[in-house]
Amino acid sequence: MSSERDSETTFDEDSQPNDEVVPYSDDDTEDELDSQQPAIEPVQNRINTGTEESQEPLKKDCSWQVKANDHHFYEQPQFKRKIFLCFKKSKYAGNAIKTYKYNLVTFLPLNLFEQFKRAANSYFLVLLILQAIPQISTLSWYTTLVPLLLVLGITAVKDLVDDIVRHRMDNEVNNRTCEVIREGRFKNTKWKDIKVGDIIRLKKNTFVPADILLLSSSEPNSLCYVETAELDGETNLKFKMALEVTDRYLQEEKAMADFNGLIECEEPNNRLDKFTGTLFWRNRSYALDADKILLRGCKVRNTDFCHGVVIFAGADTKIMKNSGKTKFKRTKIDSLMNYMVYTIFVVLILFSAGLAIGHTYWEQQIGNSSWYLYDAQDYSPPYRGFLNFWGYIIVLNTMVPISLYVSVEVIRLGQSYFINWDLQMYYPEKDTAAKARTTTLNEQLGQIHYIFSDKTGTLTQNIMTFKKCCINGQRYGDCRDSAGQLPSHPEQVDFSWNRYADGKFLFYDHYLIEQIRSKKEPEIQEFFLLLAICHTVMVDVSDGQINYQAASPDEGALVTAARNFGYVFLSRTQNTITISEMGTERTYDVLAILDFNSDRKRMSVIVRESNGNIRLYCKGADTVIFERLHPRNLKREATEEALDVFASETLRTLCLCYRDISHDEFEAWNKKFMEASVATSNRDEALDKVYEEVEKDLILLGATAIEDKLQDGVPETISKLSKADIKIWVLTGDKKETAENIGFSCELLTDETTICYGEDISGLLQTRLENQRNRAGSSTHSSLRMNEPFFQGSRNRALIITGSWLNEILLEKKKKKKKKLRLKFPRTEEEKQKQMEKKRRAEAYKEQQQKNFVDLACECKAVICCRVTPKQKAMVVDLVKKYKKAITLAIGDGANDVNMIKTAHIGVGISGQEGMQAVMSSDYSFGQFRYLQRLLLVHGRWSYIRMCKFLRYFFYKNFAFTLVHIWYSFFNGFSAQTAYEDWFITLYNVLYSSLPVLLVGLFDQDVSDKLSLRFPRLYILGQKDLLFNYKKFFRSLLHGAVTSMIIFFIPYGAYLQTMGQDGEAPSDYQSFAVTAATSLVFVVNLQIGLDTSYWTFVNAFSVFGSIAIYFGITFDFHSAGIHVLFPSAFQFTGTAPNALKQLYLWLTMALTIAVCLLPVVAQRFLSMTISPSESDRIQKNRKKYLAEEEQWQRRQSAFRRGVSARRSAYAFSHQRGYADLIASGRSIRKKRAPLAAVLGSTTGAAETS
């Protein structure tokens, strides 16, 4: 039994996770896993054109068929699917994308359906129906209809405005154009009109509109360079290559129009780097893989034009498959509010039932024996009690405040506009303002526990810059003049002496320039020559401008730096490389390129100089270079010190070295190299072994230091958010070394941080899971021990885990089935039960393991997940939501972040360099990561405080208003008669008490925005739900109940034996109603005045204006003139003028107001004096704080020498470089037809937008 259990959860020992690869198990089937082979070098790096045709096409699961240039092909019955009853639709999606919710037809029904899902709206609809029944209604129907229509109308308009914005953004994308074959010619066509099977032409710097099979391009051998930042966050160029047969025959427009190939491939899925298919054309079949596919969201770079056939369109594209479903998001307060409304429903029913029972008893004891109360209806007391139950449901309906929802929507709308109008969140460089794309989540911004951030383009700028270097033990890059002295003020180096300088490079060390130009130190010349020679960068010259195409952004930065310092890479052929060395052109013979891979962490190039000498140049991570240095390297120690200095400044370092090789040694080595190059099995291992033989006894030249530029203010923002007790997790598709380095740069990690990796925690989790399984049936004490922390002590820990380890630890990795010859027999019931039990147990273990992982990760101060897929990003967010019940925020800028953004409670998109997909799927957007602190610590906190204050007061004022009816019931035979005039009931929540609380919900603030940012600890109130919860709710209800008693019983006592100044007794029902109503209006409006922290003229005007409006309307409605016009609707004729002229009643109202408010004033005074909150203390000293000129100082990391773990190895490219491509000669530009000839007769085609 134990072995069976172990097999369900134990990790596969034979296949340890690979940190360097992104796992693609999102949609992997068991069969695919079985067929997977060990990772081999990408096919494009060693193309063998002869094998293209002979390769066995893979037909398994290739049920997706695409016929080029044939729209009728897709109308066949087998390509239709049933959508409803007998209605069928093509299984091939159109290319239009849709993020909106409504259209003209569906808006009204769908919107009303969504609104009536709210308990309060449905309740008031039922109430409106009840009020139409005269036997049970004591209130006019308009008292409910008017507020209900107002609520539905305002909410519908807001939803419509939101959806119109989504329509506009969708239209912006769908109406982009590209050239598509129509009627035999390329014509400009909108993206939304592109269909599967269309042949399209894309030009340089345009986005790919759908997933297409590359057919040909303007580059040699139909190479096509693409930027995949939208997909995986990587800004370095990738290259794709068409089939040799399509490159040869599909160049001209007529050939494209006549192309009729049939493609059979896998069904649409979300695996970004996997594709399997076959092209059938000219009676032959050709295997297709991911290297020949351009995905939607990529951008064509350094390729004048390319052609392709659409395979997946719109919702079927891989990027859309990764985007996840749009989820309806609601705030925590919304959910709490709904439960509170349900609580009020229960209270309402209990009150109504109690009062109905009271009426039944009263009828039996008094009503039946009182002849003067006979109403000509011979109903029994129980039946009268039953009718009164519904009567009280109607009378007490204001306990469930219908205006609550419309007021909440108005407040949220206002808060959204404040975010949109905030100039301190405006990014002028890109003319990008902050945008609240939804209006329903603002207060949740004040309750965030976890932030999940992308790295590339979100924390960083996607820009690599050469900052410093160490040459021959001497450090360069600090601000110095040409004599090596510190200048009085920094002055930028003038590169005008170099005609190849790109003009964008900024450098401040004049001393290094002086050394280069003087040519006194040969090591400096060798250093920059190495940078110009040792790389796999390819060059493109257009209009006299040199453009580099690099496999990684770091490599591009190094070659660009060498170019600016006078060592310019000009061109290369299959066997040579041409360099301009301080104005002198030299060509070197390239004898071998020893390319990067993840294990080697270095690259080398062997060149023959003009004098015949053979030299190896090498660059790589310090850890691998130092192992291969000659024992007598005098500058090693100085270089190590420089590396530590660079590392403390969070720069990415790389060591450079060289070695002279004799002719005999090279000949012997080259023979082995050629044999390994053509090995049919284990070729990579054979090559690595040969590389090792020559990469030894190296002479150290120095080291480079590159800055992966962070966005402005990232460390400060992370520091402030951490002080607000918000945990930040970074989820990125980038490599582990790069992600770790950025963690140090943005101060998420420090030198004091203890870093745990996937391999470190897997043992901990496995042990914990085994213990939990063994103790599953044990006592409660043992289960309590299982909840103890994973780490002992309070050390500062961080977790860095790769996608492969994440799959392994979370038991997401699918297991390979061992294929055995088995005879299939029908399963017995017992076998089926066993199988079900086994599956159930495996799921339980998996869930427990996932919970353990979340608990462990949450013990860490920071978590960095690298090499993760978009689906894994969403999974991590979902796990924290599920097991921690915490409010989450996801922030990103690329299409690979969309799933994560949609999964989190709040999604934030950065309008960056990676398109608009993240923004279109987000709830909030802005231009820079640093604005997140203002969004949360200012707008989020204010929104939460305002909403909580608004809700507490709203429930209070409604209970204070409604419960008066209950006290009055004890004196009117529980007859469901109202204590107020009908018009007062109708207008109380609309005019008399709504404006002041609405303005508090919009403008109130306990401390200013500057103090909110300066004291991030103020944010913790929202995380702990301290300002609005069930305790606060019941306190508001109790406060309202006490207020209602005072408002009823003080006037009631005053009216018992009263004589007016004119000798008349004002103690009639109508005068009492006016007295109670007037007292209520004064109390609730003055109460909101006490609750207001931030007074403005508008607040004061609203409080006193509401009271003035009450008197104006009351005197008007009680006038004789309006009674003459509408005698049945206005029956309180003359009541207010008569009652309010009595001084005795004014004294009664003054006493009522004082008894209601003075205890509140006393309680507030004692609270602020004895135990003031943090915001009270800050508010008290606000003038002192605002007068201080202190700025938030960024805490510098402690500097420690010799910490090699801090060094960034180098951000190696995520795939092998271009070495094989260069060596094969397939990248070398040959003379080919100009673009005009290729385009055939289509002259003057419009540019692709």
From TrEMBL:
Q: What is its EC number?
A: 7.6.2.1
Domain named P-type ATPase A is located at 174-237
Which protein, by its recorded name, is this? Answer: Phospholipid-transporting ATPase
Q: What's this protein's family per the entry?
A: Belongs to the cation transport ATPase (P-type) (TC 3.A.3) family. Type IV subfamily.
InterPro entries xrefs = ATPase_P-typ_cyto_dom_N, ATPase_P-typ_P_site, ATPase_P-typ_TM_dom_sf, ATPase_P-typ_transduc_dom_A_sf, ATPase_P-type_domA, HAD-like_sf, HAD_sf, P-type_ATPase_IV
- GO terms (BP aspect): apical protein localization; bile acid and bile salt transport; bile acid metabolic process; Golgi organization; inner ear receptor cell development; negative regulation of DNA-templated transcription; phospholipid translocation; regulation of chloride transport
Reaction catalysed?
A: a 1,2-diacyl-sn-glycero-3-phosphocholine(out) + ATP + H2O = a 1,2-diacyl-sn-glycero-3-phosphocholine(in) + ADP + phosphate + H(+); ATP + H2O + phospholipidSide 1 = ADP + phosphate + phospholipidSide 2; a 1,2-diacyl-sn-glycero-3-phospho-L-serine(out) + ATP + H2O = a 1,2-diacyl-sn-glycero-3-phospho-L-serine(in) + ADP + phosphate + H(+)
Chief location category = membrane
What's its membrane topology?
Multi-pass membrane protein
Q: How does it assemble?
A: Component of a P4-ATPase flippase complex which consists of a catalytic alpha subunit ATP8B1 and an accessory beta subunit TMEM30A. The flippase ATP8B1:TMEM30A complex can form an intermediate phosphoenzyme in vitro. Also interacts with beta subunit TMEM30B.
Q: Pfam families, alphabetically?
A: Cation_ATPase, E1-E2_ATPase, PhoLip_ATPase_C, PhoLip_ATPase_N
Q: Which residues bind Mg(2+)?
A: D454, T456, D893, D897
Provide the transmembrane region boundaries.
339-362, 389-408, 950-971, 983-1003, 1037-1057, 1069-1086, 1093-1113, 1143-1162
Q: Which gene encodes it?
A: ATP8B1
Q: Where in the cell is it found?
A: Apical cell membrane; Cell membrane; Cell projection; Endoplasmic reticulum
Q: Name one GO cellular component term.
A: cytosol
**GO molecular function terms listed in the Swiss-Prot or TrEMBL record:** aminophospholipid flippase activity; ATP binding; ATP hydrolysis activity; ATPase-coupled intramembrane lipid transporter activity; cardiolipin binding; magnesium ion binding; phosphatidylcholine flippase activity
Residues annotated as domain P-type ATPase C-terminal: 919-1172
Which residue spans adopt a coiled-coil conformation according to this UniProt entry?
A: 811-852
* Sequence positions that bind ATP: D454, K455, T456, E555, F596, K619, R652, T732, G733, D734, R867, K873, N896, D897
Q: Which CDD domains match?
A: P-type_ATPase_APLT_Dnf-like
